[in-house]
Each structure stands twice: as structure tokens, then as C-alpha cells.
Amino acid sequence: MKKQWQIIDPDPQTVERLTRQLSCHPLMARLLAIRGIQSKPQATRFLAPALGHLASPLEMTDMDQAVQRIQRALAGNEKILVFGDYDADGITATAVLVSFLRHCGARVGYYIPHRITDGYSMSSRFVTDRAKPAGVGLIITVDCGTSSAEAVTLARQLGIDTIVTDHHPAGDLPEAAVAVVNPTRPDCASGLSHLAGVGVAFYLVIALRAYLRKIGFWHHRREPNLKKLCDLVALGTVADVVPLIGENRVLTNAGLDQINNGTRPGIAALMALAGSPDAPVDAEAIAFRLAPRINAAGRLAHARIACQLLLAEKRKRADRLARALCRLNSRRQSMENELFESIIESFEHDPKQLTGSVLVVDGPGWHEGILGIVASRLARQFNRPAVVIGTANGTAKGSARSVEGIDVSACLGRCADLLSRFGGHPQAAGLSLEAADIPRLRSRLNSVIETLGIDPDLAPPLRIDAELPLHQVTPDLMAHLEQLEPFGQGNPSPVFMATGIRTQACKTVGHRHRQMTFTHAKGKNGLIPAIQFNVTAPAGGVPHFEKIAYRPQWNYWNGRKQLQLLIEDTDPGT
């Protein structure tokens, strides 16, 4: 889809001030200003994120009550059960808390629900059928629980306390909980609402370790180094696509150091199968290589496979589990592509489906585990929110994904009377309803989104940080850009524009990607390779471009690294 090129224009005085204060290149100052950096102290913290910069976990409401109740459970040798979610955020949050509590000598187990048979979050059936018979005294939820008031109340009636840790938007809190540690709750002014579920769980661990230190718990037991858990935090944080700013930036940066040290057998085993052996793991590798494989367990089988991998202590067991996840991910990719292509084919037969402000598609037997990924692809391709719904026996479950400027969760809220359940984030949500109500949902959502005044036929924006001729793409430039990492949501890798492009070679690779070689406009510094995904090479010659939008990156291959351009968009001119 054609994009609107928008060159970002930061405040020139801020750029000049940062250039002077930091004694840096104006391009670096420009990139910092675009990212909201206005002073030398801010720049220093941004460029050198450290665990010492983390805000106090006690700023979160109910944190005191949570750690004191866990300490009582430790002292009383109570059975503790960690209840997680089946996505990568919930899986890593489970692994963080279980790892720490095991180190404390706790009687701790964990439970992750099955996506299809159990559904999302803690249910009353879980309390009566599993927690109570197992003699659990304390349940700690991670990445879920805020919406489980009924189950929490039942647990309390049966003599089981519950601590909720979550990051999903909080409305009515489960009042029967001992504590609800959720930075999005209305009475929490911590400024930590951008944390993922695993980040909230890690903050609980920070607070608990400090409280146990205060009461002398570590006098006869080695106090753990929490940095060793940051690999799990980075994995869950990046996978959940929360903004990589503030604490998330700090935790992800520390976690990437841990991952690249190769100390956790499960992550090392997965990277050996999923990644380039020569390339260091960065946030992009988590997002496109690790996270999909972790998520594949909860999508197609059971998420406990992924949790077992992350908790594995022996490499042999980790290798076996990693191979299982890779097989599940390959199957997921095949199922996803098949469903996506069938939906595209249906659009070709019935183009009217593309005339609204939102895409709502449904079909019998569509697997719940792949609906969200297909919805994401549809939203990107057609630049409008997409809802993909699978039906069975008169009921329907679906996943919604959105585009910039449209809060899909809020839009679903205006359709609440048609839904039996819904919830999520501005950009992603889940829902269930009666299959007979799908046409009404489609009509209502279209009306709701039309009132926002956003034209889905407008080309999506492509924000460009600066114009940068190709001859300035050098190893020195890459060293400066690497200081801005980790890149991700809220801190995207810089996009540059170049004009006067000379294309020397062009061919299709992998059936649907365009591999090219450019010469610099000045013709002095040799050649630079480039890759553009999901665009095939034109027949009959080498294309001409008036300008290109690109991200410079390192390409690792056969023990060597080479500069290349990742092409975001091209303008062939006239």
C-alpha cells in the first residue's frame, strides 16, 4: 500500500542545544529530539539505561500488602500457585515469579490456562476443580486477574487468598483480592502504566526481595541477582508490543545483555534453532524470532510447553522443548497463511467487504489461536481495523487488531450489548458473541468508526527522521544509531530518505522479496546492498527510483557482517 511520506521536523533550538551540550553530530541530536529528549540529563539516561533508574515498586498501589502476604505464605509453608496467561507476556511473567519463589524455597506451582478449553484469565471452575483440591493457600495471578472478580470472591469464600498482578486496563477491581497490583488502576499514580504484565511481576519480585532483606530472610539463604531474570522480562515486554520507553527500555536493555550471554538454556536453545548464529539478539530478534515461537505453544497446543522451556535448567531438555516449539510455529505459519489467503480470495469475489471502515470477517471452524495474527495482517494490508471471528455451534470468538488513531477496545465497548465478553488494549482485543449477532456487530462497528472521521482509504503515514544520502551510511553512523537501541514500539528504529538513487542490480528472492544493489549518488564509495520485503522485482530491467525511504542495518551472514538497507518504501518518480 502506498504511504504518505512525512519528514519529522523537531524543534531546531532543541537540536542545536543538544548538539552543543552533548558535543555530538547534529543528526544524533535530531534523532534524540524526535524521541522527546530535550536536555543533557535526559539524553544521558536515555543513552545509558541502567537498572538504577527504575522507579520504586512501592509507588504501585497495594504492593505493600502483596509482599507481606507472600512473606506470610513463605513463613507458613503454604502452597502458592502462580496463575498466568497463555501469551508470551503471561508465560514469561509466570516464569519470573516461579523462578524467584523457588529460590526462596517456596512450595510453588503454576497453572496456565488452555486457550480454547479454559479461556482467558482465572475462572470459578479453576478455583473449585483445581486450586481447592490441591490445597492452595495463595494464588498470585500474572498478566491477568483484574477481570476475574467472581473467581477471586469464590476463592476467598473457600479460604484461598488471591493477589492480582496485571497491566490490563482496570475498571471494577476484584474487591475480594488481598492486593491488586496493576499500574493502570485509577488510584495508582506510579507512572508505570506502560509496563507489560511481566514488568509488573518483576516489580513485585523487586519489592519482595527488598522486604525479605529487611526482615533478615537472606541471612541464611543466598540473595538472588535479579538481573538474571531480566532476559525473561525483555522477552515478554517486547513480545507484548508495549512502548520501549522508561522502565521498559531499562529492563529490555538489561535483558538483552543476559540473552546474549547465553545463560538461560531455554532461550539459548530456541535462538540456536530460530536465529542467525552470527547475529547478536536484539529487540527485533525477540519480536520476529523468539516471541512467535513462544506464542505458538499457547496458540496451537498448550502454553505450559513454553513455560517449561523457560524454566528448564538442563540444555538437553531445553533442546527438546525448543524443537517442539519450532514445529508448532511452522504449523502455525501454514495455518495462518492458508486462512489469510482464503480471506483475500473472498474479498476478490466480493469486493463490497472492503467498502467499510472496518473489516469484520468470519468463518466456521477457524482456529482461535491464529485469528489475532490474521487480523494483524489484514489491518496492515488494508489500513483499517480488522476483526477475525471463528464460529462453532452458534457461538463466535474473535480477535480484533487496529491501526494508528483508532482504539479498537473502546470501539468494542460501544458494542458491548452485542458481546458476551470482550477486553484488551487500544490496538488489540478479544471478543465473544452469538454467531447470529455478527452482522449487527459489523454494522455497529462501521458506524462507530465512521464517527471518528478517519478515512481508511488514505495512505498510512511513513514518518521519516531525516534526509540522509547513501554515502553517509557508514560503520561510524551505525555505532551512533546503536546507542538509541533497543528499538520497538515507542522508539522505532530511524527511517531515512535518500534521493538521486542509482540501482545497479535487482532480483526477486524468496518468491516475494526484492533484493537490490545501489550505487551512491556521488559514485565514489562503491555499492550498498538493499532488501525490500513483500515486493517482487519488476520484469524487464532494473527499476529507477526518485527517492527511497530506508533503515540502515547490519546483515550477518557466514561469520561476517555487512551494511545493508532495509527499504521501507520507494518513489519511482515520473
From TrEMBL:
Q: Which residues form the DDH domain?
A: 79-237
**Residue limits of the DHHA1 domain?**
357-450
RecJ OB domain residues: 464-569
Q: Which GO terms describe its biological process?
A: DNA recombination; DNA repair
InterPro entries according to UniProt: DDH_dom, DHH_sf, DHHA1_dom, RecJ, RecJ_OB, SSDNA_exonuclease_RecJ
Pfam families xrefs: DHH (PF01368), DHHA1 (PF02272), RecJ_OB (PF17768)
Q: Which UniProt keywords apply?
A: Exonuclease, Hydrolase, Nuclease
Q: What family classification does the UniProt entry report for this protein?
A: Belongs to the RecJ family.
Q: Which gene encodes it?
A: recJ
State the protein's name: Single-stranded-DNA-specific exonuclease RecJ
Origin organism is: Desulfosarcina ovata subsp. ovata
* Highest taxon of the lineage: Bacteria
- Recall the GO molecular function terms of this protein's record: 5'-3' exonuclease activity; nucleic acid binding
